[in-house]
Amino acid sequence: MIASVRGIVLEKREGVCVIEAGGVGYELHVSLATLVGLPPEGSEARLLARHIVREDAQLLYGFAEREEQQLFDLLISVNGVGPRIAMAVLSGLQPAQFARAVRDENLAAITAINGVGRKTAERLVIELRDKLGFLPMAAAPAPAAESGSRRGRAAATAPAGKVLAQSQRFDDAVAALVTLGHPQPLAIETVRRVSADAGEGPEEISAEALLRRALTALSRPTLVNR
To answer: Which residues pair with 63 in a beta bridge?
Structure first.
């Protein structure tokens, strides 16, 4: 069983890196956070690893942090959750954010992860809520983040005529981002921007879809210099 890989980073691309160790290039599937944290190609890196053997393939999964690896192990222990969904969870939410979402039963935040439906999210909450004590937890939203104030601030920052800024779905998406630890002004602006970019109104897009797009938008700046 391969427990870790240490060597030269040969390649980095979405969801995957290749590290050469002892003359062998190891392809590891990694989360967004681990990928972003890797040094430039040609530099040395060390990743913890999980070696998953299937009938048709042998796959390596890499982790920069022990907590990420432990959460991966827990995720794949849940019925119906395989390595692909587990890596999507790790890419969609930081471990501390996931712990907060599970504790708060924040299904909107969990279903915003690509590939995670409502039934899977409910199963994750039920099976993992008492098993995440090893993880630090993202801070809860500030008391000032009341629905009314969110709506007022959103309306103030949105362009004229943008009804979405005053919709419940807008408020729900902003509240989920704040719960996950993002500053409220940034959450409001990001949700407003992704809804405007999509050219959709409040009747055409769900809070989960808004949140998924906002999380994707918030992750993009870190990948510019990947």
So the answer is: 48
